[in-house]
Each structure stands twice: as C-alpha cells, then as structure tokens.
Write a structure and sequence with these properties.
Its cofactor is Zn(2+). By secondary structure, the chain is of the alpha/beta class. The protein contains 29 helices and 34 strands. The protein folds into four domains: 304 residues, 3-Layer(aba) Sandwich (Rossmann fold); 230 residues, Isoleucyl-tRNA Synthetase, domain 2 (Alpha-Beta Complex), CATH 3.90.740; 167 residues, Orthogonal Bundle (Isoleucyl-tRNA Synthetase, Domain 1); 118 residues, Isoleucyl-tRNA Synthetase, Domain 1. Strands 8, 9, 10, 11, 12, 13, 14, 15, 16 and 17 form a ten-stranded mixed beta sheet that branches. A four-stranded parallel beta sheet has the order 2-25-26-19, sandwiched between helices. Strands 7-6-18-20 form a four-stranded antiparallel beta sheet.
Length: 940
C-alpha cells in the first residue's frame, strides 16, 4: 500500500544512473523544440532544507511536464559559490583557532573557500538527486569555475566599456561585523530598539522675521548621525507652528522662553514628549515659507569642526508628519534620501564613520567612538552624542523606540548607512532603467502580481552598488588612473583579463602584477588595480551569459523560457539577472518568471530550530519517500506560502495510497493483456466510452497545465478521477465484467481496452509528479516484454499519449451525468437498507425505482442493475409510496429496496432465481455457466 518508497526509490535512482536516463532523454529529444528552465543557483554552504526541496521539485515537475509534451527540456543545475556566507564560515574557523584572516595569504584563503563550496556542492547534488530531480548532474554550472569567472569579468567589462560602471561615494547599507556593503537583497528587517532624540538647531538666517531666535527641532532614531548633519529638511505643504515655551514639567530640558518650530499636526505629541506644560504660538505657516532659512549645527559652540559650516533648510518630498517633528535632519553620508537632497543642493557628503563602525579621527568630539562593536552590538557613540547635545543645550528630549530595522541576513547584526567609495552601475546611463521596465512589460509572470512588484522595484531603485570589500569572489577587474581618477577603458586590457581568468581563474588577479594585464602600453605605477570583489548577485545575475550562451554542446538557447524561484527573488536573482542582461544585451534573459511562496509549519509559523518545527526533507524521505514530498509540492498552491508538518504529510501519504492503489488495480486487471483483445471504440458500451471521454478531458487539462503551471488544480482533478470516477464508479461496476464475463465477451474486452488506455495515460500524466511510482508502475506492466516502441525502457522517455478526437463526446458526458444522479439515489437507498439490516450487500437487493417520464427517458438503453450493482432493478411509474428514499438535490427519482429472490451464484454473487437450473453447474447463474463452459472448452 505504501510502496516501501524509502527502499525502492534509491533502487530506481540507481537504475536511472546505470541507463544514463539524462543522456537518453537528450538523444530521444533531438530536433524537438527546446524548453529551457534556467536554474537559479542555490548557495553551496550546507544541507538542503525544505525550501530547497520545494524549489527543485517544482522545477523538475515543470521540466518533466514540458519533456512529455514533446519538447526537449534540457536542465542544467547550478550553484552559487562565492560570497560572504562561505567566507564567514572560513573566518569562523580561523577565529576558533585564534588566527587572523587578514594575516592569511589571500590565495590560501580563497583556496579554503573553494574547497568548502566544492564539498557542499557534492552533498547537495546527491540530496537533490534523491528528490528525483533529473538534470545534467555530471556537468552542472558553478560560479567558481574558470569559465564562469572569466565570463563574469567579461560582463563587468561590458559595463566598463559602455560607461555604465562608475565609482562613487554614496551612503550604502554597511555591515560592521562583515566589513562590507550589502545589497538590499542581503538585508532583512527585524525588531530593534533605537535611541531617539529631539534636537534644537538654532536659526541664524530666516525669511520670516517672527522666527528670529527660534530653533528648528528635529527628531531622529540615529543619534550617532548628528556629527554628519549638514542640513535640515521640511515639507513644502506641511503646516508648521512656532511656539514659545511658557511652562515645563519636572525633568524637562527646555526652558521657558525657548522658541521651537515644529509641524502643527505633531505639536501636541511633541509638547508631551518634551514635557512642555504651557506654550504660546508666535507664528504659523506652510513649509514653503521657510525657503532660505539657515540654522547652525548644535555642536558649533563646542568644536570648530562644526562651526565651519552652516546648516540650511531645504524642501524634501520624503518629509511627513507620521512621527517626530515634521523636520528631518539631513546627514548626506548616512541615508539615501539625505544623499539625494544633499547632492541636489550642492551639500558635501562627509566621511564620518570608518569600516569598523567607529568615527574617523577627524570627526570633532567623537573620534574613535563606535556606532556598533565588532560583534554588531550597540557601541558608545549614541551615548556620547546625547551627552554632548546636553552640554550644548541642544537636547530637547530623548527616549527609545522599538521598530523594524535593517539587519544582515547572515550575521543577523544591525546595519548602518555609511558613506563609502563603492562601484556602481548607473540606472540611467544607456537607458538601463527604461529598457528594464520595458522588458518587464513583455515578460509573462506567474502569478501575475509579480510583474507589478518587480516593476516598482526597478522604477524606484537607486544606482546598483556592485562592489564588496571582501576576498572570496570575482574581482572587479578594472584599473583607475591614479592622477585623473578616470577608469581605464581599453578593450585589449579587458581581453587579457578574460583570457587569463579562463585559463587560471580569478585568483590570478590577486596573484599577478598589474603589468600582466596592462601590457606594454601602460605604466602600472600610474594605475590603481581594484581589489574589491563583485556582488554575488551580479555573479548569479550573469549566469545566463555563461550557461545559456556558451553551452553549445548542450544546444541551449537564450533567452530562457522560464526563471523560477521564491518570491523574495524579485529583489534578488530576477532583479540582478534582468539588470545585467538589459545592461549588456538590451533584453531580459527570460520569457517568463514564476515565483513560489515560502515554507511554513502547520500553524503558519516560520520554521526555526528554537520552535522545533523544522521539517527536514531528508527525514521525510527516510520515513515516507521522495514521492510524498513531490505530491505535497504539486497538491499545494505554490503561489502562496506552503505549510508542511506531520499531519499534512500523513494526509499526503493517504492521497498517495489512493493513487498507488489505482495503479495496483490496473496492473492486476490487465494481467495477460494482449493487443488482440482491443475493442474498437464504436463497439464499446456507453459506460466505457464515457471513461474515454473523461480521458480526453483530462488530456486537455494535462497539456494546458504544462504551460499554465497550475499543478495543484491538475492534481485535484487526477486524484478525483482516480478516487471518484474510477475507484468508486467505473472499477466498482466493471469488476463484475472483469471477473465473471467470458474472456472473449465484448463487454470484458471493452473494459480491458479502456483500462489499458487509462494505465497508459495515468503513468504518463503522473510521471512528472510521482516520478518514482510512475516508473515502478510502468516497469510492472504485464506486456513490457512483448516488444514495443522506443522509449518504453522508462516512463520518462515517453511523451503524453495522443488522444483520438473521437473520444471526446460532450453529449454522452451530459447523459451520464444524469445517469450518475439516478445511481446516487439508488446507492443511497441501498446504504439505508444495509443500515436497517434489510440486506447485506447491494447484490442481495432488487430495488424498485420510481421515475418521472423525463428521468425514465434518461435511462434508455442502460441496465440500471449493472450500474447500481444489484441483482436486478424494477422501474416503476407513478407516485412512489411513503418512505421511499429520495435525495433533495435529485428530483424525479425515488427508490424502495426489496430483497432479491432466488439463490446466490457462487461465482458472481448475484442472487437470481435461475441459480440451480443447470445440471453441470448447479451453483451458477446462466451467465457464469456459459463463461465456465467457454473456459472449459478452451482448456480442452
């Protein structure tokens, strides 16, 4: 019943390897239309988890479905190998051994990273294969091969040559722990407790006379950014008020007579926070009236460093009255909005915090103070800033706020916005943003809302920061003129870089002198050789270039038909792949993008070791087998988050048993099948032709699903077909013909012909889903040694069988819907009679069925006793007696159940008066006597 999948599946996997199934698939697919699902590379740093299983199974189901529609679904799995997670693991090893990573030669360090990634690739490869995922596992792609690294360098070179690459000094999300900039895709938002402060900025120049001697009050959750302040921002359309303090509460830092400028909508909350008990309004007006207002830095009186510049007020469209004071302090080096407003108004972008999270020595008052420690904990900077604000008389109030704050998804430590020189790809140069948005509009998204999500991200994103200050990755292999700061744009130099990387890998950049790449045309002393590595998202985003284009042996194609990953990849791999391809080829690397949700436990919670709710695919396969996981993926609506746990897996196992039992029944019923038994469709009874109609309907659904990817609805239909149409209806009715009719009878031949067609199609239709079980069933077919067509060695070498158009019969289907309605009333009456102990089984009954003329006409030509599985049926007109069984949803039918008269035939179990009338077979009915006679004559 369960199939012993944990034992049988590895045996089937071994047989696929032995026969080289992937190679045979390619050989049998030659000349077919290509279907290319380009694999988004998982990270090679640990065992696979249930999210990996979901992703790879869904890809495999799609690839197998496309293959069986008659295409060539060439799938090359890949791995992401560079980047911080692996580097972090090697550094951890060093830390435990008391070693400093910076003291290890970079080539040695990179070698350890490479070996670490290679180990986990081997582990994950076997785990993915155990799921039944078919692909070119002997020739996967990885981002750390020489060929891949060379192509990544070449892709960077394309942006270098077209002017899209530039070095700029901008605030970026920076990890103090990991000492590198992070992309938005590497950031997660978690609860964090921040210090909050309200600070006075004294007005020194104002277009409004009433504001002379007043103070602009700002509110911020990052006190440490105050030394980097260079402006304040207001909203043009926001209503502001200036108040003069007339009363204060205990502990207030403001004094009577202080003049404070805040947003009118926030005045009441502000006064409560500042412990102001009395005030009078001295001015009100829109923010637009503040144009030209200038303040001075709150630390101007404490240190000449801050006295050297004024703090102007500028309008900012990002200013709101959601919280704070309606004024935003602008530190151009510590925020995206701050940077944009600052540069737009010619304000300098200062360098205040170093890579370790400490203030630079030149920062007045706070040199060496730390925003965060090396371990990502709160440093002493906030406390120092707050203390100096008190000393300066600029602090209005302070407090704390719990809110969502950016953290590194690897170290889990909070991040800071920090101004630092980085390498960027311009979103405007070469119309990159415009091209990307246009390509999104041409792309098919499943589900459709993914299009709007990606579009809005691209529309609003800043320039793409692609540099990382780490060691494990492909270097941004470019040169900068030390005197002019200009990038060296020389195609010959870039060609040398790519050629060397192709032969030796990107280690050569760190091991070779600059002269090796610059050649004789340039003096190496005049150029800076950039040692930053490129963001891993750029690497994986370039994978289309070193997988789809160069693999001529695989005869792939560009762009890919489909990219498929989790919904988080709108900001990750989909995003970077789109930008990389549009920047170098002016076209998206995909025709369609499919996203799936995340895996949750049965209560809808995120899985975590602390909660003890982690479901490991390895454990599931040990207990149930991979086909149960595959069934779970297909039975779920993957467009939403998917739940999994012990009860859900049991539920899937129950569904699996129904499907497996369908195969078992079909194999038993088809024992000894020969093509000579096949009965032409036109000679079949209506019931059997109805099944063929259902097969035709399902065939259309299967083929449509291969393109729509809506597998959960297909699974529901296939499961219901097996459980309801076949097991509870057709099999139940036709088992009598199978077991009791003479072997050569037309009804039995029709039944076996239909069952053969059902088996042929179900094994093919379920092969992409239940890859192992469908294979096992196909190999167990009784006629497998009687010769056959190419591709019959494995079910996966087949294509979906063609369905004759003549099978589709809508009129017949409509008629049998009505017949089944009548049958339901009869079977309901039989159930009640069994419950009342009137009969033991339906074959002990001869029900009287009262029908309206319209209902009686629906049964014309149908033996209702055969369909209802009774020993007879009596059809009656007129009014049914009181107590007759009816169903409210089925009008015109009423049933009275009477016991059958006669004896039970020991062969077919029908109760008939004719039993006992045959001398040679006194215990058989007429039909069974004839059937046994034909068998006896055949044996003689």
């Amino acid at each position: 019943m369960r199939g012993d999948l944990p034992k049988r599946e590895p045996e089937i996997l071994a047989s696929w390897r032995k026969m080289n199934l992937f190679k045979q698939l390619r050989e049998t697919s030659k000349g077919r239309e290509k279907f290319i699902l380009h694999d988004g590379p998982p990270y090679a740093n640990g065992n696979i988890h249930i999210g990996h299983a979901l992703n790879k199974i869904l890809k495999d189901v799609i690839n197998r479905s496309q293959q069986m529609t008659g295409k060539d679904a060439f799938y090359i799995p890949g791995w992401d190998c560079h980047g911080l997670p692996i580097e972090w693991m090697i550094e951890e090893k060093y830390r435990k051994a008391g070693k400093n990573k910076d003291e290890v030669p970079i080539i040695d360090f990179r070698k350890e990273c490479r070996e670490f990634a290679a180990h986990w690739i081997d582990v994950q490869r076997e785990e993915f294969r155990r799921l039944g995922v078919e692909g070119d596992w002997d020739n996967p792609y990885t981002t750390m091969t020489n060929a891949a690294e060379a192509q990544i360098a070449a892709e960077i070179g394309k942006f270098l040559m077209n002017g899209g690459l530039f070095r700029g000094s901008k605030p970026v999300l920076w990890s103090v722990v990991e000492k590198t900039a992070l992309a938005e895709a590497e950031v997660e938002y978690k609860e964090h407790v921040s210090d909050t402060i309200w600070v006075k900025f004294p007005v020194v120049k104002t277009p409004v006379a009433a504001l002379e001697g007043a103070n602009v009050v700002i509110w911020t959750t990052t006190p440490w950014t105050i030394p980097g302040n260079r402006a304040v921002a207001y909203g043009n359309d926001i209503a502001y008020v200036a108040i003069e303090v007339t009363g204060t509460g205990e502990g207030a830092l403001v004094q009577s007579g202080d003049r404070l400028l805040v947003a009118e909508a926030l005045k009441a909350v502000f006064e409560a926070d500042a412990k102001i008990t009395g005030s009078k309004q001295i001015w009100s007006g829109k923010g637009s009236a503040l144009k030209g207002l200038v303040t001075k830095h709150p630390f101007a009186g404490l240190d000449p460093y801050y006295a050297q510049f004024q703090v102007p007020a500028h309008a900012g469209d990002f200013v709101t009255t959601d919280a704070g004071t309606g004024f935003v302090h602008i530190a151009p080096g510590h925020g995206a909005d701050d940077y944009v407003l600052g540069t737009a108004n010619g304000i300098e972008v200062p360098q205040t915090v170093d890579p370790d999270g400490a203030y630079f020595d030149h920062v007045g008052l706070f040199a060496g103070k730390r925003v965060l420690t090396h371990y990502g904990k709160k440093g002493d900077a906030n406390a120092a800033v707050i203390e100096k604000l008190k000393e300066a008389g600029a602090l209005v109030a302070s407090g704390t706020l719990t809110h969502e704050y950016p953290h590194s998804w690897r170290s889990k430590a909070p991040l800071i916005f920090r101004n630092t020189p980085q390498w960027f790809i311009s979103m405007e140069k070469n119309d990159l943003r415009k091209i990307a948005l246009s390509e999104i509009e041409k792309t098919r998204f499943v589900p459709q809302q993914g299009q709007n999500r990606l579009y809005s991200m691209i529309k609003n994103r800043p320039d793409w920061v692609i540099s990382r200050q780490r060691a494990w990755g492909v270097p941004i292999a470019v040169f900068v003129n030390k005197q002019t700061g200009e990038l060296l744009r020389d195609a010959r130099v870039m060609e040398r870089v790519v050629e060397v990387f192709q032969k030796e890998g990107s280690d050569a950049w760190f091991a070779s002198p600059a002269s090796r790449f610059l050649g004789n045309d340039y003096n190496p002393d005049e150029f800076e050789q950039i040692k930053d590595i490129v963001d891993v998202w750029f690497e994986s985003g370039s994978s289309h270039a070193f997988v789809l284009e160069p693999r001529k042996d695989a005869d792939l194609k560009w762009p890919a038909d489909l990219y498929l990953e989790g919904s988080d990849q709108h900001r990750g791999w989909f995003h970077s792949s789109l930008l990389e391809a549009c920047g170098t080829r002016q076209q998206a690397p995909f025709k369609a993008v499919l996203t799936h949700g995340f895996t949750l436990d049965e209560q809808g919670r995120k899985m975590s070791k602390s909660l003890g709710n982690v479901v490991a695919p390895q454990k599931v396969m040990e207990q149930y087998g991979a086909d149960i996981l595959r069934l779970w993926v297909v039975a779920s609506d993957y467009s939403d988050d998917l739940r999994i746990g012990a009860e859900i897996l049991k539920f899937m196992a129950d569904h699996y048993r129904r499907l497996r039992n369908t195969f078992r029944y079909l194999l038993g019923a088809l024992d000894g099948w020969s093509e000579s038994e096949r009965l032409p469709v036109k000679e079949m009874p209506e019931l059997d032709r109805w099944v063929l109609h259902r097969l035709a309907e399902l065939d259309a659904k299967v083929r449509a699903t291969a393109d729509s990817f809506e597998f959960h609805s297909l699974f529901t239909e296939l499961h219901n077909f097996c459980a309801v149409d076949l097991s509870a209806f057709y099999f139940d009715i036709r088992k009598d013909a199978l077991y009791c009719d003479a072997p050569g009878s037309a009804r039995r031949r029709a039944t076996r012909t239909v069952l053969h067609e059902v088996f042929s199609r179900l094994t093919a239709w379920l092969a992409p889903i239940l890859a192992f079980t469908a294979e096992e069933a196909w190999r167990a077919r009784p006629w497998k040694d009687s010769g056959g067509k190419s591709g019959e060695e494995s079910v996966h070498l087949r294509v979906y069988p063609e369905t004759p158009a003549v099978w589709r019969d809508e009129a017949l289907a409509a008629r049998w819907d009505k017949i089944r309605d009548i049958r339901r009333v009869v079977t309901g009456a039989l159930e009640r009679a069994r419950a009342d102990k009137k009969i033991g089984s339906g074959l002990q009954a001869v029900p009287v069925v009262y029908l309206t003329p319209e209902r009686r006409a629906e049964l014309e030509g149908v033996d209702l006793a055969e369909i209802a599985i009774t020993s007879g049926v009596s059809l009656a007109d007129g009014q049914a007696p009181d107590g007759a069984f009816t169903l409210p949803e089925t009008g015109g039918v009423a049933v009275v159940v009477n016991p059958a008269e006669g004896e039970k035939c020991e062969r077919c179990w029908q109760v008939l008066t004719e039993v006992g009338s045959h001398k040679d077979h006194p215990t058989l009915c007429n039909r069974c006597t004839d059937a046994v006679g034909s068998l006896e004559s055949t044996a003689a």
